[in-house]
Amino acid sequence: MTRMSAVDRRTALVHAAVRVVARDGVSAATTRAIVAEAGMSLASFHYAFTSRDELMVELINAVVDGEESAFTPALVSLGGAPKTLHDAVRAALLDYFDGVRADPDREKAMFELTQWALREPRFEGLARRQYERYFAVAEAAVVTAAEMTGCEWSRPTAEVARMIVMLTDGLTIAWLVNRDDEAASAAIDFATSAIAQLAIPARTRTKSRTRT
User: Fold this and answer.
1) 101 lies in a domain?
2) DSSP bridge pairs for 201
């Protein structure tokens, strides 16, 4: 029998924990429940993690890492032809939503873990760092979209990013409740229009250079 590496063991336990948390909640995600889900022994758990709390920290970090790639691929794929900022925002939101639909358990687990972290004084900082990373990812996407489409933002990019995160949070939790793709599509249209209205054409430097 092939021996599983420590890295693979940790990854398998994290994936198992996501499934348990999404299905039964954080309180039910005991070490025994997680190893049973992973098909491992309790000794295997302690070989990979020193405690359940360490696993929870790893779990939050792993899921947030997955979220970081939510916007970038859609924006990069726009590189071939000129696109409006409206197109760029819509493509990024659709790509994000495709990720939600592809792995709803991850999203359910993420919301569950956020609430848990906020209730646990020892882990409240994890929830803050989680959203700081979300805001950073969204801001990077906002900057990229403006650069690719020759636009500028009328508001600070950090502010635009926060709006996007709040809109996607609402979109995600509403879809998890009713699984209504049509309503989600309408919400994406609304969010796209609202965000795109914050953009203005970049100041043309070409004209000023021509005049000089």
Assistant:
1) yes
2) 151
